[in-house]
Amino acid sequence: MRIIRPLLALAVVVGAFVAPAALGPAAPGAAATAAVPLVESPAATAEISVDVVPAASGILRPGDDLTLSVVVANRSSDTLPAGTATVYLDRAVVDGRASLATWLAQPDAALPLESDRGDVIARVGSPELFPGESTALATIVVPAEVAGFDETAPFGARRLSVLVASADNRQGEGRSTITVNPDAGFTPTGLAIALPITLPASTSGVVTGELLESYTSPGGLLTRQLDAAFGRPVALAIDPRIIASIRLLGTSAPESVTDWLARLESAPNQTFPLTYADTDIAATSQAGGVVLRPASFAINTDLFPEGAGSDAASPSPSPSAEPTTPVAPTLESLLEWNYSTTGIAWPRAGTVVETDLDTFAAAGLETTIVSSANSTLDEDVTTGNAAGTIGGRTVLTSDAVISDLLSDAVDAPTVASWEAAMVRLTASLATLATEDPDADAGRTVLATLGRGDALGGFRLSDTIAAVGAIGWSAPATLDDARASPPAAREIVDMPVAAEQIQGLQSMFASEAAVAQFATIVADPSALTGERRLSLLALASQSWNTAEPAWALAVADYLATSGEILSAVQVETATITQWSDSGPLPITISNNLSVPVTVIVTVTSRTAILDVTEPQVRVEIAANSQNRASIPVQSVANGKVVITISLTSETGVPISQPAQAEITVQAGWETAVTSVLAGLLLLVFVLGIIRTVRRSRRPAEGAATTDTAAQEPMGAPGPDAPESNTAAKARD
Length: 731
Fold this sequence. Notes:
- It is built from 21 helices and 30 strands.
- The protein has 731 residues and is of the alpha/beta class.
- It has a 5-stranded mixed beta sheet with strand order 2-9-8-4-5. Strands 10, 11, 12, 18 and 19 form a 5-stranded parallel beta sheet that branches.
- A hairpin with a 5-residue loop joins β29 and β30.
- The N terminus and C terminus are likely disordered.
- It holds the Pfam family DUF6049.
- Keywords: Membrane, Signal, Transmembrane, Transmembrane helix.
């Protein structure tokens, strides 16, 4: 069988040109099936997949040949015998985008009747395929006279399909469209496109210099995004986190990073800000009725010498020059940007409920981008302008169909899949342009590229360029979309998943607890600023909150907050109180990287110990311990349990109250004092005696000297030893 495969391929090539010609010309709307036997329509099967892609994004001008690429794949576990691929064309204009969407949806049940597919315009052979094998059929070229469209053919999309039937009667179908364009018969639709300039999911609210250098390098993520949209009719929705992170680098910012920021500033595109870190504002609204913003940033002042900027690269001053004073940026200056427009909320598509619009408006976001799948129009309106109102609130409606097709093209993994996506997008825009042919002015619709498209879509530039070349789609700006006649809409509530709401609410509660705890720090933002930035990062739309990675990141956030809340503690131990009154030592530890100030409060459970001054203010340096001295008075001996609690100076409880056991041995104080006093007296008396004895010794020495002076020279003294002669005489 493999030996004849080249011959079979040759037969396919010949059939691609001979078979259509054998069908003869067909007038528009005329059947061309007389020379082709009808084919039965059994149940559809997933065993055979057929992909058909017309050339030139499916655009066919009268008098042009129709060129098709067809790929057949055998997805079954059995060999697929050789068969026939039959091309069908319905020359009637598709009567609306709903009909078009139904047609393009691949069949899951029964294949349509042959009469519903239209006319047969070509037939070629399909080779034998082993299990898992796929092959591209020879390019099918349908002559213009067979396609049957002349200058009188109406503008619009037509249904096109290829049915592959094997010798064992297994079938597979591929569907597509062509758009006949006689350069008349349509009203161009204004198409505004919004592209998010965002970053991948992260747990940090500030992007490091290393990552930014990678993103702004040639071929980097941010470079690709800006290259694709620069100077094109695309509105850029910018994540302020990118701008703030670059500015926080100060003089350490890599050259590629500063160059990218300068290029973004010079872009002629319309721009508007996303919320910081592109937070999922519908989720934060439904979880807590808030739109989050950063509270503060940790700033390295060494990176911001006075006059840094254009002069930062100048030679170093002479040693005698005056040192510069660091000029640190403010929260406002880090986030400031010259946006074309502001006040736009862009929640994740298909997640908005009506009360969210009020939350957004209260935060200054008066206009909300809402997916058309998340709202409805009046029954007599098929497609409205992008501008609209919902419950008195201003909205910009993102056309869900156009947006999805645009995303399919941007995310296409292969050239063939990109071409197929562009065929569908072209046909959908053509159908939109014919929905109201009597209108003096066409609609203006908005298409939005999803966050994933901006992050991973490697065909972003090609897609935007191709859309701009479609004649029945007129480039429009975001201002054009906002200025179009508004359509009254109603929201279709599509709440955020419960798991995401629960995760956000847990982080909200944790952040609030840290904010209360931070009152023990002179500058609470040293703790709260980082927690808010991390929360913003975890609330970003770049996260797929249905995946385990997000839940793990949330758990890590909560654990870190828990470590902060337990960083200041009472170090408990059994204490013995020997005196009737005196200070009771209480040790406080601080594991934070900043100093804290707490109020230590001690209460006794029994009357054995009277706490005369129950509250003491204590300062503890960073990563250290300090001791609080609590004045107490013992009433009797025994054991007593005291409760030690910590609060901030504003009265906020810090950590859990601790308990310590105190052993009071006040009776020992008198005995010990008496013994010590006796010992001291004894030492004093002994000292006096020693002093007296020493004073007497010089007097005795003087008397002895006088006696010796009165005796004759040579006379023995009273203590002199006897001579030998005297001793003998005595004997």
